[in-house]
Design brief:
This protein has 224 residues and is α+β, with helices and mostly antiparallel strands. Helices cover 29% and strands 39% of the residues. It folds into 2 domains: 100 residues, Alpha-Beta Plaits (2-Layer Sandwich); 88 residues, Alpha-Beta Plaits, CATH 3.30.70. Helix 5 runs antiparallel to helix 7. It is globular and about 45 Å long. It starts with 6 loop residues before the first strand and ends with a strand. This is Spheroidene monooxygenase.
């Protein structure tokens, strides 16, 4: 019997123009309140990219909050917290994916944030990939990775994707949601994607990287 109750959530907050400076400032001001949230094991408040998947152009209207929880009760209770209500008051829309990690490799600033349950994906699957790019490899990264990300736009089975990250270019992550593991792997093992992965390994572009798979538990959207 699987006793791992850990739950992961990622919430995308979309802000009107009048509140975007407030949202940008929360990248620092919200850290302390988020650290005090009950049941939280790990969190990252991040900006997002303005294009499809990975993008060099920032999207100042949307911010992503990734959180790891002790259990689903703690995750759902976050919506009653002061910090969440403050975000919700300032944004015009937000939507949350709740999920359970089933596979994770790598680290996030030296930490392993997810505790995989080792379950098998039998339906939709979500993926987070993240990398810290070495400064002297940035130009190589920019030459190849954005085009590969754009190729995902035509990938079969892709439901949603968004570039996320703590710092532009050098610290990049992508969240993607797929209809099935098979369709996700069809893209992951496609020729264009495999060529970039081969270059990453051969030329040692990354200082740190992480790859994690999740199965969805629940999805909540607020009306536009």
């Amino acid at each position: 019997m699987n006793k791992n109750k850990e739950v992961v959530s990622i919430t995308f907050f979309q802000y009107p123009k009048r509140n975007r400076w407030w949202a940008f400032n929360q990248m620092q001001l919200a850290i302390s309140p988020l650290e005090r949230v009950p049941g939280k094991k790990f969190f990252k408040l991040m900006g997002t990219g303005g294009g499809f998947g990975f993008s060099l152009k920032p999207d100042f209207s949307t911010y992503a909050l990734l959180m790891v929880w002790e259990d689903i009760e703690a995750a759902k209770n976050f919506n009653l917290s002061e910090v969440y209500l403050r975000f919700n008051q300032q944004c015009i829309n937000n939507f949350t994916y709740w999920m359970r990690c089933i596979q994770s490799h790598g680290t996030w600033y030296g930490e392993k944030p997810f505790n995989p349950s080792q379950e098998k994906a039998k339906g939709p699957i979500m993926v987070i990939t993240r990398a810290r790019v070495k400064l002297h490899k940035v130009l190589r990264f920019l030459k190849y990775v954005p085009n590969t990300s754009k190729s995902a736009e035509k990938a079969n089975g892709l439901i949603f994707t968004k570039g996320i990250g703590e710092w532009p270019i050098i610290e990049q992550a992508t969240f993607s949601y797929w209809k099935s593991q098979e369709q996700m792997e069809d893209f992951a093992y496609s020729l264009a994607h495999k060529e970039v992965i081969k270059r990453v390994k051969k030329e040692n572009w990354y200082k740190e990287e992480l790859f994690a798979r999740f199965i969805p538990i629940d999805i909540n959207e607020t009306p536009d």
